[in-house]
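Troubleshooting entry. Yesterday's outputs looked truncated, so today I'm pasting the complete records for two proteins to confirm everything comes through intact. If either block looks cut off, that's the bug. Protein one:
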Amino acid sequence: MVKTIWKFSLHDKLEQADGYLVSTVDLPASADVLSTAVQQGDVVIWASVDSTASSQPKKTRRFAIVPTGGNVPNGGLSPRFLGTVLMQDGDVWHVFAL
């Protein structure tokens, strides 16, 4: 199986949670999320995806975007830390896969 790297924005579907934001993204079922960063003002993630992913079913995934000093999500979840992003306005956010 050949894998390729795909990029996904976390800004499309945002909702407010307990001291952080939650982004919902439909990813190919084979997606393995690798990292996060800011690109042109948007928080994005990169994932390794099976090259036939366009024909695969999608899986809805959730990501927490937590400001410095904000609550880290727990609620029975084991969030996986993806990275810290530095916004141009000086805000610092920490991204977790839920």
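Protein two, checking that the full record survives here as well:
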Amino acid sequence: MESIPLNQTQVQVRVNEFVRSVYNWMAIGLALTGFMAYYVAHSEPVLSLLFQVVDNQLRPTMLFYGLIIAELVMVFALSGCTAMLVSGSAESEKPSDCTESEKEAEKRGC
């Protein structure tokens, strides 16, 4: 791929657009998290799936712990796959210790 020469103003505009898009996605994610937290906090059936009352106290159920573990597994799996993405979509360049080929990454499910 060839480099496109840009002047300082064009570079600044592109950087500003990129940063704005990142913050927009972060705001959308934060709003979605807030709506889901509100829904779970005000939904009796969902709360009863995640917590049980024992001796007048709320205790987490196994589903609650399972969801936390699943979230951590997903975070580690996705962060392990970022090295396999096209340069520029997840990081500026691949780490120097990354020697895995695309076929090996596909075997891992990345």
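Both blocks look complete. Sanity check on protein two: Strands lie at 51-54, 57-60.
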